[in-house]
Each structure stands twice: as C-alpha cells, then as structure tokens.
Amino acid sequence: DVQLQASGGGLVQPGGSLRLSCVASGFTFSNYAISWLRQAPGKDVEFVAAVNGAGLGTTYADAVKGRFTISKDMPKRTVYLDMTNLRPEDTAEYYCQKGLERGAGTLVTVSS
C-alpha cells in the first residue's frame, strides 16, 4: 500500500523557517512526482510545490516561489519542503501527495 507520512510542522514566528518531511513507501519512489499541498482554515486545498520522479525538476506556486524549496532524498525515500521567511498566510495543514493519494497532514502555524 502507498503510504505518505508528513511531519515537521509546528508554531513559528513570522520570518522564521521550518522543514517539512514526507516519508514515502509502497511504490517505486524514483518513478513518481510528489507534491506538497496545503489547506488553510476555511479555504480550499491549494498546490504548493512539486518535484518530479528523478528529483531534478521542480515547480512552485507563485505564493511560495523564492521562499520554499522542495527536494527529494532517494536513499531516505523522503521529500522535503524547506520553508523560509514564513508569513501568517502560510498557516495551514500541509500534505504530501502522489497522484491522487494523499497522506495525513502536518500543521504549520505562523504567528507571533
């Protein structure tokens, strides 16, 4: 079975940084793109970033471009989302997703 386990969320002040991790299992990791999505309270799910199967190609939502970096660690079967210069509007539940399969999220709260 495909499993995607996100972790690393927490409370951080505006301007701070966090690293989210998504550990994957149950499929050939190098064959599939992985995305990070987020859902803020009362809002729809939105795309944040994606990395391709080989880990060499990335795309970002405009709202996070230049602040967030997505990467893939093949031996650890882990996708990271490094978030810097966090803003209150980044507050959301963050999920990692392969195709239509999504794991449990991790909550990021940006507040002073």
Task: Briefly say what this structure is.
This protein is mainly beta. 0% of the residues lie in helices and 52% in strands.
Task: Break the fold down into its secondary structure elements and pairings.
Elements: E1 3-7, E2 10-12, E3 18-25, E4 34-39, E5 45-51, E6 58-60, E7 68-73, E8 78-83, E9 92-98, E10 101-102, E11 106-110
Parallel strand pairs: 2-11
Antiparallel strand pairs: 1-3, 3-8, 4-5, 4-9, 5-6, 7-8, 9-10, 9-11
Overview of this protein structure:
It is built from no helices and eleven strands. It is mainly beta. Strand 7 (68-73) and strand 8 form a beta hairpin. It is globular and about 40 Å long. The N and C termini lie far apart (40 Å). The model has no long low-confidence stretch (mean pLDDT 96).
